Amino acid sequence: MPDPLVTLGWREWVVLPALGIPRLRAKIDTGARSSALHVDEQWRFSQGGAPWVGFRLSHGKARGLSIQAQAPIHDEREVVDSGGRGERRIFLRTTLRLAGLEREIEINLTNRGAMLFPMLLGRTAMTGLFTIDPASSFLHGRPPRPTFPTGAA
């Protein structure tokens, strides 16, 4: 018998550990195929002959927390947003931690600065693990605040 699906609310806290993102608010969106991560800035570079992307994102209260990360580019393709506008986006493969579970997901980078949530979790990231209760929010709590050694920023 397969494991039962874990129920998520329409918004949840997620962790992207491989990108150094200890917690981030995400909108759960079954209408979106792919997942999207807000970035303020992104740049390409090569590492070991392979294409990589570096990026910076701000989030938290008044976008006061800033994280800089890098990852190999998995793919690049056109994404059509809910307004029908197409945009070529970089896709990464990274680990998602949500509701005590971890899964490798594909995520694209875009400017979501005008949106309430810095991340949108699309249906391909949820398939086979999660079901959604649209009347609920943050069912799995907030991940703990990261701690840094004394003197670290």
Topology summary:
Blueprint: E1 6-8, E2 11-16, E3 21-29, E4 35-38, E5 41-47, E6 50-59, E7 65-72, E8 75-80, E9 86-98, E10 101-110, E11 119-122, H1 123-126, E12 130-132
Parallel strand pairs: 1-12, 3-11, 4-10
Antiparallel strand pairs: 2-3, 4-11, 5-6, 6-7, 8-9, 9-10
Pfam family, one: Zn_protease
Protein name: RimK/LysX family protein
Domain Retropepsin-like aspartic endopeptidase: 8-142
What is the gist of this entry?
By secondary structure, the protein is mainly β. It has one helix spanning 123-126; strands at 6-8, 11-16, 21-29, 35-38, 41-47, 50-59, 65-72, 75-80, 86-98, 101-110, 119-122, 130-132. The protein has a seven-stranded mixed β-sheet with strand order 2-3-11-4-10-9-8. The protein has a three-stranded antiparallel β-sheet with strand order 5-6-7, with no helix packed on it.
Please give the CATH class: Mainly Beta
- What does the largest sheet look like? 7 strands, mixed
Binned, the helix content reads under 10%
Approximate shape: globular
- The helix-strand sequence is EEEEEEEEEEEHE
Strand order of the largest sheet: 2-3-11-4-10-9-8
Return Rg in Å. 16 Å
CATH superfamily placement? Acid Proteases
CATH arch. level architecture: Beta Barrel
What is the total tally of β strands? 12
Structural class: mainly beta
What proportion strand?
Answer: over 45%
Number of DSSP helical runs: 1
